[in-house]
Hints:
By secondary structure, the protein is an alpha/beta fold. The strands form four sheets. Strands 15-14-13-12-11-10-23-24 form an eight-stranded mixed β-sheet. Helix 2 (30-39) runs antiparallel to helix 3 (44-65), helix 5 (183-197) runs antiparallel to helix 6 (204-212) and helix 13 (338-356) packs antiparallel against helix 14.
Amino acid sequence: MPxxxxxxxxxxxxxxxxxxxxxxxxxxYLPLLLLLLRFCPAYRFVCLLAVGFLWANxxxxxxxxxxxxxxxxxxxxxxxxxxxxxxxxxxxxxxxxLDKVNIDTYPAAMPRRVSLNWYQSNQLPMAGERWQFxxxxxxxxxxxxxAGFDYxxxxxxxxxxxxxxxxxxxxxxxxAPASPVSIGGLRQRLAANIERDCQACRHSGLIKALAVGxxxxxxxxxxQLLQSTGTAHLLAISGLHIAMVAFLLFGAGxxxxxxxxxxxxxxxxxxxxxLCALGGAITYAAMAGFSLPTxxxxxxxxxxxxxxxxxxxxxxxxxxSLALVVVLIFDPLAVGSASFWLSFGALLTIxxxxxxxxxxMSGWRQLLILQFYFTLLFAPLGVFIFGxxxxxxxxxxxxxxxxxxxxxxxxxxxxxxxxxxxxAGASLAFSxxxxxxxxLFDYFDILLAAGLRSRIVDDYPALLLLLALCAILLLLLxxxxxxxxxxxAMMVVVxxxxxxxxxxxxxxxxxxxxxxxxSLLLRTRHHSLVYDFGPGRNDRFNAARRALLPVMxxxxxxxxxxMVVSHVDQDHSGGLHSFIGSYRPTQLLSGTPRExxxxxxxxxxxxxxxDYPDWRWxxxxxxxxxxxxxxxxxxxxxxxxxxxxxxxxxxxxxxDIEALQESxxxxxxxxxxxADVLLAPHHGSxxxxxxxxxxxxxxxxxxxxxxxxxxxxxxxxxxISRYRAIDAxxxxxxxxxxxxxxxxxxxxxxxxxxxxPRRSWRRW
Length: 764
């Protein structure tokens, strides 16, 4: 059974992560393969591999068919749907998801789930209610960068087939209230009770995540702390939490069995414990709205519990293998979810430890050994899923798991029950849980202050990662334990490895994909410079938090040597929220220093880039080109920082300057404007990239930073024609993702993330 489950898993993985989706007619061979399974046992592994591949291919086609069609992309439509989950309420918008959707005059298969933002709304939809909206829909999309969250893949796995926002209209109204017994309505009332009884809690967002699986109210600082300590999986309803509840109720069921009434009906002790565990798990999964991760965990638990009732006919490893097959039958796209791998990784770890541990051992020693194996076996998963090794995971989880499972989670669930009948008692239980969460977070801060931070390993060579896996196997396998010293030495080699540095005169420019805005990272051998931070706000989407910071962490850049905000406009400066309070006073430059200082209420002064002296890093020269005219009142766009980088090749970064400022540059600097790479001024607007400016710069590579199908229509067709007339090679962040320019002697190497790699969920 384990070998056959692996065959199905590998087939599913090949289909999901393959570069080309196979034609749907291949699925007609599935019945033939099932017949071969029955009559050709010698080829069973190969047949199951093909079955997994074709079944996943069917699921991929089914998912893609229900995504919003091209003709309705960026189009206003009338829509009716049911609010599927708790809405996320922010200062200026409400974010909600709809299912059971009906789009007026839509000619194709209806999207199953639609994610919407409703700005400046004076109404608050509730989970389970039926609403009608006038909306502008878009196909699911996301930015693609060398590091950070792949939002596009997440939407695909979650079944979100369209996104968009609600237009201002009198047609936006509730059609029907939530049913009093609907799961959505019950979760909404429970969330309201938490807000009422947990007003003084510092971690109310985390408590709501534990109670009803809603993560929208977790603050960014808490998210970052959990991710840095390898404990992000602990504080929202997941497979681990369902397992915790099932474990507690399994124990409770063994004691309930002793009651005469239960004993007399003929149910044995193990059956009673399993029924209690499964009932509790179903109830807890319902509190999370039966989300995909909880449903997968529920299937796993049900299969394992039922299999264990068969006593010696099936062991734990076979139960896990059967659960894997069942999950992949119901949801082949689960292989793209981190929760899938974490859940099965946890089950396999428990099975391995149960097999290895002696039968008689104290509980605290079992917990310690289990956590050690968790940390060791989850290291490869951390590398392949998150691209990092959490050094603090072992000490963090040693405290967090027992504290959460034995104290915090029971307190939260008890408080939820009390909130329906006794508000004062619920408030007391919530406050105790909040205080324990505070102590836990203080402990996490101590671990990080001691230097136990995550190690980014995305750039590790495959050979080095293979060496780390071999070291783990040497530590785990009993017959090879004598080579433990060798294994530890191999791990030290892996942890001490450093990527090759750039040579003198070389530089690397990374133009990040941040939507409608700009953010660039330039590196020389020993130095780094950030030019713009992209759009964002402190309380919600922030391009620096999603793109720039993960890339800096991956490259081992703790702090950029110089940060430049070309000008104060939101699409260039918004991401600065992620850096406020963490930079040196002499480190930040801007073309609009007074406006930037006022907008962000900065404590440190901001120096103007217009009078900043030229400098040189590692054989690469940098200079700001000042063409401002103090006698003329200029827009913030025309006061942008204009940075010229000169090494083996030349790069010109002009911010959002427009035609008037371009003409001043041509008059002041003439041939000195010549550059190999040009960041198109003002995202390629029709008011910039004038012909005299293009003739002077004559770039061979031009980059437009923008969002797909943006409302301004950038880049302008006339601008594109001008650049094509000089045979410039055009790059667009909306089509190419992040774009990397690597300048070395004799060659300028250009790569992008979307081309040539493709995935089934990326349509462009």
